[in-house]
Queue: 3 jobs
Job 1
Amino acid sequence: MAHEGSRYRNLWALTVLCLLRERPMHPYEMQRLIRRRHKDEFLDLKRGSLYHAINRLEKAGLIEVVETSREGRRPERTTYRLSERGELELLDWLRELLAKPVREPTQFFAALSFLPHLTAEDAAEQLHQRAFRLELEIASLDAVLHKMTPQIGRVVLIEVEYLRAMRQAELEWVRTLAADMRTGRFTWDREALCRLAEAPSPPGEDNKTDA
């Protein structure tokens, strides 16, 4: 099942399966709940992908059509429900996502790996700006949690709570790193690193192949 799931496993598919486990609904209802619960803000759900995910999940036999109806002049709406196989797949997928840490490279991760292309002073200034933006984001997350938790409950917003914790940890680390750069505790010599890169490889190193 896991190998088959690689074809449709993405955040949209996960969201659709979870919503349909609550009750059968049509795509418009899914969109309304996603907006109400702020899932589109914190799960990076791209617009236009909902119907594509629904189509893939239906073809995979994980969801199925309940009925197609029309109210007045409104377009037809197809109501879907979770199949038995879909529920098993969803629960297996959720357990895997929660239990297995994975490396998720980010643009910030990539930028850190090429840090020596900037001077320590320049890098410290950019990190200072990042810290300021992180503070604004944390304040925004705090506002969402303060407003929405009493309305819809902590469990519905648990990913927002997690994101807030991650941003707070990142902010503290970024502040420390920038301070180390400004005080000279952490610095580098780009020219020396370039010379090191030009040094000949150890014997046999060039002949190694990926395992």
Job 2
Amino acid sequence: MTPLAPTLEAYFSQRLIGQRQASAHTVAAYRDTFKLLLAFASQRTGRAPSRLELEDLDATLVGAFLDHLEAERANTARTRNARLAAVHSMFRFAALRHPEHAALIARVLAIPPKRADRAVVQFLSEAETDALLASPDRSRWVGRRDYALVLLALDTGLRVSELVGLRCQDVHLGTGAHVRCFGKGRKERATPVRPETVAVLRAWLKERRGRPEDPLFPTNRLGPLSRDAVEHLLAKYSATAAKSCPSLHDKKLAPHALRHTCAVELRRAGVDQATVALWLGHESVRTTDIYNHADLSIKEKALARTKPRKVAKGRYKPSDSLLAFLEGL
């Protein structure tokens, strides 16, 4: 076995899990990156992954791997950048253990992320939200569970991992009603809920009859729902809602769309970006900028507050030949 194997093992066990206390999702994503990279390097070099050297993972091979992700696996630039971030993280760790490979490591760390187009986020209109909430069959236990889950997601903007991770004890329905969760980056936050949602959750908890540590939204076997289960139920209810709200036919409804819908509603109501960032558990206020671009009505309100300038009509004419040249570029 070459030094690469114990370096990788130490990176995951000591640095990623032990020191950084990375979430299970981060560990899984980084693990998958190196499974793909080692398989690619093994195919290129003809050596088994356990026989690969650190020198085999040079900048040329890593660059070819990134191209392979886009060209052959049809990954987006964002996925490519996420894989590159995992490689960079491991190589920064390797730099401390293998200073003899400093030049090779520096060249890999110099590989830049790729610029990616940012699509406008998808969110639901008021009519689409009403149609979605009307879809669960509330005469059945599963329908009442799903109605409470979707309503809470729209009200709080919780991530799907935060929703399925909620326990009965995380719901507080007294004065200052809120739900408490551990979000991305291991940050704990409390998010308030509206009176209508409080009434639904109170009825659900009474029916749920769970212990404080039990999942708030369980499966039929009383275990926690998975992310895939939430995606499946949303797809089912979206198809049902599309019968009465045709605009849903053009939208692939993912759980994150409910989070976006909550954020857009907050911005429409005039809530400032800093508060929305705290509400959603964003690391930076700048992340909330996407919701300003998503909803045209926010820009229309801003435009309505402005006054037209009384400027005479005309065409700009440069007063200098050099300026004319630059203007013509």
Job 3
Amino acid sequence: MTEDDYYFTVESTAVAEFKDRGSKFLAYSFPIKNTNDFKKYLQQLKKEHPKAVHHCFAYRIGTDGNNFRISDDGEPSGTAGKPILGQIDSKNLTDTLIVVIRYFGGTLLGVPGLINAYKTATSLVLQCTPIVQKAVEIKYELQFNYPEMNDVMRIIKQFNCTVLKNDMQLFCVIQTGIPRNRINEVLSAFKDVRNLEFHLMK
């Protein structure tokens, strides 16, 4: 079992506040799975805080390290998104979104002050939410007849697979995430189920 079989993420949404010379920084953390989650949460916060001057953010998704995005949202370049992502990375997190909302207090903080504020707000919110370890999963689609349902669900539960999507009718389709470190055992168990077809999802 290697460390690549697991990743760390935030368990739940949390919020923390940091103040500096009148400016208020509200940091929100969210566990996310994809960019749609990100868009949904960002829109939600913009609705909740229409008077805030900046909605800066950073997120990282997936375990290959390539899917991330940062935004300074009008703050000087490099003063917001980068420090936020830096905190996410310092805790080795992924599938994590942090949005820091700033209410301007009338005093300019300067570049070092801004970097410190966004970094501190992010660090505070990450202390407010439990960090959880999750198994890296490989996605498979399963197709089978309804009578085989119990066998299939038993295997899914036994190996802690995640059900991502299910369509239960006479003919059933389940999309499941299988922990990478148990993949051979799970596929071998699936082979023993009658009339079960399964394939790797793209």
